[in-house]
Write a structure and sequence with these properties.
By secondary structure, the chain is of the alpha+beta class. Helix content is 49%, strand content 10%.
């Protein structure tokens, strides 16, 4: 059975509240390589050719709005500029942005109260889904905890993707996250099997595909405008027009 059909069946099971036990490391795919290859070889093709099989199936599912998750907000909620960032934990361009550019941007604009960030997940594969679910389960204590998980997941990305059993690697990662904060098998399995969280993340994905036409990450949304692909801090400043320093707040899309 191909990955496309498998994903559709599993997604339907989640919506029925039957959990995600059908997923195993055999179904894990390295989606960022797929996006890089398609982008280089088919740059002039329609956006549909750039969507992963997983994303296409999610796009077709009728997910009720009641599954919507709370936004993950970084920074002062009253900051005048809103930046929405879509990332996948299995995307190497997302890793590069998060580890190299985001800390500079945070220090310059977020910690100073000029910009608030909405962090949203983009589901390219099973690994990006399950990692996003675990961050949702265990990172809601504070934005510092969320950022710590992002830092450590992206920092371990290469080892994770090259492991023989990526799903087990991910579970072990959360079991040994910090000396003072670890999670057991029961907690991790309960999170991965949480139908409400998986449905909420899929609803978030549908919004990215339907409303914003996002087919590549990282992706940045501000004031209704979308930029897809890796951006430096300087490019992000131009996109947000921070040199003009808007005073009125934005409305998240």
């Amino acid at each position: 059975m191909g990955y496309d059909i498998f994903s559709k069946i599993c997604a339907a099971l989640w919506l029925l509240g039957l959990g995600v036990s059908c997923f195993s490391h055999q179904e894990f795919i390295h989606a960022d390589a797929y996006f890089e290859e398609k982008t280089k070889e088919n740059a002039d093709k329609s956006k549909d050719t750039l969507e992963s099989s997983f994303a296409k199936r999610l796009k077709q599912l009728p997910i009720p709005g009641s599954f919507a998750l709370d936004e993950v907000v970084i920074g002062d909620r009253n900051a005048p500029v809103t930046l929405i960032i879509y990332t996948s934990f299995t995307c190497n361009h997302c890793r590069k942005f998060h580890l190299e550019e985001l800390p500079i941007f945070m220090e310059k604009y977020v910690l100073t109260g000029k910009v608030k960030i909405y962090l949203r997940s983009y589901l390219q594969d099973v690994g990006s889904l399950e990692s996003s679910m675990l961050v949702r389960c265990f990172g809601e204590e504070s934005e510092e905890k969320i950022l710590e998980m992002y830092d450590k997941l992206f920092g371990s990305q290469e080892e994770w993707l090259q492991s023989k059993n990526p799903r087990q690697f991910l579970k072990d990662f959360f079991k040994n996250l910090t000396p003072n904060q670890t999670y057991g098998d029961a907690e991790i399995d309960a999170c991965i099997g949480n139908a409400n969280i998986s449905a909420g993340l899929m609803l978030e994905e549908k919004r990215a595909l339907h409303d914003l036409a996002i087919v590549q990450v990282p992706a940045f949304v501000a004031n209704g405008n979308v930029r897809q692909g890796f951006l430096t801090v300087e490019e992000l400043e131009k996109f947000l027009k921070l040199d003009a320093q808007r005073l009125e707040g934005d409305t998240p899309q």
